[in-house]
Input
Amino acid sequence: MLTNPYENRRKRYREGIDDTADALDEVQQGLAAIDKQQKDAAAFREQQRKTARSEKREDAATERQSRLDVKNEEDRQRNITRTNENDAAVRAERAAREAELKRKTDAADKEAKKQKAITEAGAGMQRGLSSADLSRLAVDAEMSPEALLKAVDDIETGRRQAESDRAAKAAKEKSETGRAWAAQKETERHNRATEENARAAAEAAKTKADDKTSKLTAGETEGIVELNQGLAMLERVKSMKEGTDGGAPIDTGPIATFIEWGKNKLLGGGDPRFTEFKATVGAQLADYIKSISGATVGVEERAALLENVPTATDNDETFMAKLQSVKNQLDNKLKTKRSAYEAMGKDTRAFGAGASDSGTVTVTDGKETLTIPRADLADAIKDGFREVK
Output
């Protein structure tokens, strides 16, 4: 049988193709294996980098935590130290307070024992105190018998002096009140007589005077002005004393004056209102009376005014009595002068209502009640009002 050479060639060609395909498969498998190895190696390296970074972060966190732990421990130690120091300071302060309290308590107990012993010694001396009792009381007071006796004597001397001062004060106030009352009554009697004489003179002069009036001379004007100034000053003093000027009432007398003296000496300054009041009552009022011209008041009248000038050491009753006495004298003097000037035809209207028209009256028309100057009474009657008696 003959073999076809082409057939053999095709067979070998196919076998070669198959071998080539197998070789290509092996190559592809090798390349795939290499690629897989490369990917595995890359994944391994990436994993190693991640692990390294993670370990680095963990190391950094561990280091930070370690530093924080160290700082917290240092802070804790400092707080413990500070707390211990504060506790020690608190204990020391508490101990100091307790010691001071104990010292004061012991001092108070000691002073109480001392005063009790002095009191008992004083009472015992009145009924007869034995040497043994005196020694016992001296021991209780932690004093020598001589010092205890001296303390008892000092207390008794102080008590007697206080009683003597109170008695002297009461006698002085009674005497001053009596003198002020007598002076006021005498002044009132004198003023009534003066007013009656002035009214009689005014009535006699008015019957002879014509309707014409003349001006006051400079001296006559000065006299009325001086008296008005004095009355205004007295009214100011009265309003301050009674508290009707908007301020607090002012107490007078030896105790009130002594308290203000103590404020000035110990506190560096007293009540400015009391200081002003005292200056007005003392220097200003006395200086005013001394400065009144001889044409306004006589020598005896000025002496009587000065004698009745109130002072801050007068008690309230005496002060007001003296003040009213001086006011009555000046007021009556003013009325007398104005009555005399008006009787001579002098014009005194520049100083307010005339002497005969001074004061106020109450009038009513049955519906309304008013208080008006007495000088307006005639006009009010014309308008249908009548005087309320």
